[in-house]
Amino acid sequence: MTHLDAQPSEPHPGEPHPRELLPGKPWPGEPPPAEPWPSGPLAAGPFPAGPLPGGLTLAAARFFAARMAGSWVPAYLAGRGFGEQALRPWTVGYAPAGWRVLTAYLRSLGYGDAAIQAAGLARRTRRGALVDFFRDRAMFGIRWPDGTVAGFTGRARPGGGQAGPVYLNSRTTGLYRKGSLLFGLYEGRRALATGARPVLVEGPLDAIAVSAAGSYAGVSPCGTALTPAQVTLLARTCDLRRGGVVVAFDADPAGRRAAVRAYHLLRGVTDHAVAAVLPAGQDPAGFRRERGGRALARRLDAGVPLVDLVVDETVAPFERWLAFPDGKFAALHAAAPLVAGLPSGQVARQVVRVARQLGLSYAEVTDALTGVLRAQE
Questions:
Q1: Among candidates 283, 153, 152, which has minimal Cα distance to 210?
Q2: Is the CB of residue 199 less than 8 Å from the CB of residue 218?
Q3: Which of 5, 134, 191, 303 could cross-link 95 (Cys pair, CB 3.0–4.6 Å)?
Q4: Is the pLDDT of residue 15 over 60?
Q5: How far is CA 157 from CA 232, 267, 312, in A?
């Protein structure tokens, strides 16, 4: 028998058998029944050979939650600074390492193979065997705003040598479409309704860290660049135009590029987008673990206008030539269209900043902006 053909492992001692996890029993983080949006994820109808997919993914989430206690996940999360209280609102669990453990459980509930595969919970091997899509991973459920479990993102065991990405997202299904959902938006809905400020972060642990830090609600695109659909979803959930949004992506080149993209998407829905400034190489979860939730909240409170970061990134490619007049004016001409397009109340700040960065006078920067505006007439 090959490893791929191995039988599912038995539950760990003290864990419930899959048949004890029948639908109907509540578990931490499960939402109350709610009507789906008329145009929402359930509008496409049922998967083949099974009931509505929301029930299948909910069954999987319950299974992962029941497997968590006997796994490496609690110790890993505790080491990252997340105790039971911080995790209580979230859909967290463990996908066992066996090849067919979840598949066997879902079959025991009466789900057909076609439904399990269509929900993104299993895949076919080259030999045609149906095996679990997620194995030996810390699991985080991603929900639609009505609470329906749409899919998952799974974090590989640290140092486990598992092939594949550190974070693995559910593949696209009729219920889960990466780029259309935000991890944490459902969990943060009550806080957002009472005035909490949304914070865009990169990963699920960052979202949990931010949400535990104070009057903020962390939301994550989970491994994809922020999309117009996600911005629209966020704007439907809270008043971005009045309350604004914080961007707290990782303090590395990839995070800065993501922040620049976020700015161009957010400027159409709010003039109050700010960037949290974190130490180089850190993310919100790591910062909270090292310095605590209060320190993270202070960093979020002290955010700078997001356009500061965007202007800085626009000027950065010219840094090696800023000792020369041609380099200064090349950088100025690159930044001028961005600054000229800002709301009038934000222009003066950027004129001062650009002039100082480039060693130019305010008049020289203002003349460049005037030239851009004239060219647009």
A1: 283
A2: yes
A3: 134
A4: no
A5: 34, 38, 37
User: What whole-number percentage of the chain has pLDDT above 70?
Assistant: 86
Q: Is 312 helix (H, G, I), strand (E, B) or coil?
A: helix
Average pLDDT over residues 156-162: 85
Query: What angle do helix axes 325-340 and 306-315 make, rounded to 10 degrees?
Result: 150
The beta-strand segments (E) located in the chain are 92-95, 122-124, 130-132, 137-143, 149-156, 167-169, 197-200, 216-219, 245-247, 273-275, 304-305
Cα–Cα distance, 77 to 79 (Å, whole number):
5
Is the Cβ–Cβ distance between 91 and 65 less than 8 Å? yes
Give Cβ neighbours of residue 60 (< 8 Å, ≥ 6 apart): 102, 106, 119, 121, 149, 152
The CA distance from 151 to 60, in Å, is 9
The two tokens of residue 272 are: 């109050």
Closest CA to 221 of 197, 204, 246: 204
Task: Supply angle C-alpha 9, 15, 17, rounded to 5.
Answer: 65
- pLDDT tier for residue 39 given thresholds of 50, 70 and 90: very low
Residue among 226, 229, 257, 263 at smallest CA distance from 245: 263
Reported as a pLDDT band with limits 50, 70 and 90, residue 308 is very high
Please give the structure tokens belonging to residue 199. 């914070």
List Cα–Cα distances, 243 to 194, 217, 330, 353, in angstroms: 11, 12, 36, 25
Q: Which residue has the tokens 């005037």?
A: 370
Alpha carbons 3 and 341: distance in angstroms, whole number = 60
CA angle 307, 311, 317 (to 5 degrees): 150
137 vs 158: CA distance, rounded Å: 9
Residue 154 CA to residue 253 CA, distance in Å, equals 24
Tokens coding 361: 């006078």
Of 57, 225, 230, which is closest to residue 141 (Cα–Cα)? 57
Highest mean pLDDT among 158-172, 248-262, 312-326: 312-326
- The two most distant CA atoms of the chain are separated, in Å, by 78
As a whole number of angstroms, the distance between CA 62 and CA 28 comes to 9
